[in-house]
Amino acid sequence: MWKFKPVLLLAAIGTLLVLAGKAWAGPAPVGLWIDHTGRGGVEITRCGQRLCGHIAWLKDGKNAEACGIQIIGDAKPMRNGTWDRGWIYDPEANSKYDVELKPIGSHKLRVMGYAGTKFLSETMIWKRAPIGLTKCSKPGSEKAAKAPENAVGTAKKATKQRQAAVVKVKSEGASPRKVMTAAQPKTEAKSKDTLANVIKAAVADTNKDGGKSKSRSKRTCRFSVPYLNMVVKVPCDS
């Protein structure tokens, strides 16, 4: 049978209690929570050794500008199982208050806002958001995220069109650089007639010899214009 002196036993128990108090800070209430009004959801995450929270869901899409605003910060783990000494922001009053967070089971969160002392406080109960709830996003954020992707897609498409145009022009025997440059649609507003005239001028330029055009053409060359589904006929050397 183990025997301990009373002083040593009390010291050992005291040490264990202190260590247990430091280790036990309660489960961190991370995740998405629906506030007491049911109109908004706050996603609580770890920020280092503390907790912070941002608006991540809004019932009314008209309030999308509020999405992403931080309303909880600096909540620290305490020995009594709470997360305290942080701050909470009230968007409606545009004010910050002290806050204490305490999980109640796994589906409820007690949020206590106070001003310096807990004798003057307001307690709210938040509920964990259902699984699969779609988070909000600020207006324009999706377009901004897709912009680089669209730019890459447009560049790839233009490159493929340019390569196809070069192949077609070479197969017709004309000057690839001039005809392809003229045939490349730089703007959608360019008309077929204008483009055809440019192509004719480019082909005529390739037939020049010493600044004089060869007028004794006995053969007609046909050129397919990429993207426009048209064929241009111009005189060329036999």
What report would you give on this structure?
With 238 residues, the protein is of the alpha+beta class. It has helices spanning 6-23, 141-172, 176-183, 192-206; strands at residues 31-34, 40-47, 50-58, 70-77, 83-90, 95-104, 108-115, 117-128, 208-209, 212-213, 219-225, 230-236. The longest helix has 32 residues, at 141-172. The chain is rod-shaped. It is built from four helices and twelve strands, in the order H-E-E-E-E-E-E-E-E-H-H-H-E-E-E-E. It folds into two domains: 25-128, Beta Barrel (Lipocalin), CATH 2.40.128; 163-236, no CATH class. Helix 2 packs across helix 3 (176-183) and helix 3 packs antiparallel against helix 4.
Largest sheet data = 8 strands, antiparallel, barrel
Report the β-strand fraction as a percent range: 35-45%
Our count of helices gives 4
Instruction: Write out the strand line-up for the largest beta sheet, numbering strands in chain order.
Output: 1-2-3-4-5-6-7-8
Overall spatial form: rod-shaped
The chain-level structural class is alpha+beta
- Domain count: the total is 2
CATH class of the largest domain: Mainly Beta
Q: Summarize the helix and strand pattern as letters.
A: HEEEEEEEEHHHEEEE
Question: Which architecture of the largest domain would the CATH scheme give at its second level?
Answer: Beta Barrel
- Uncertain segments are 1-23, 187-191, 210-215
Question: What portion of residues is helical?
Answer: 25-40%
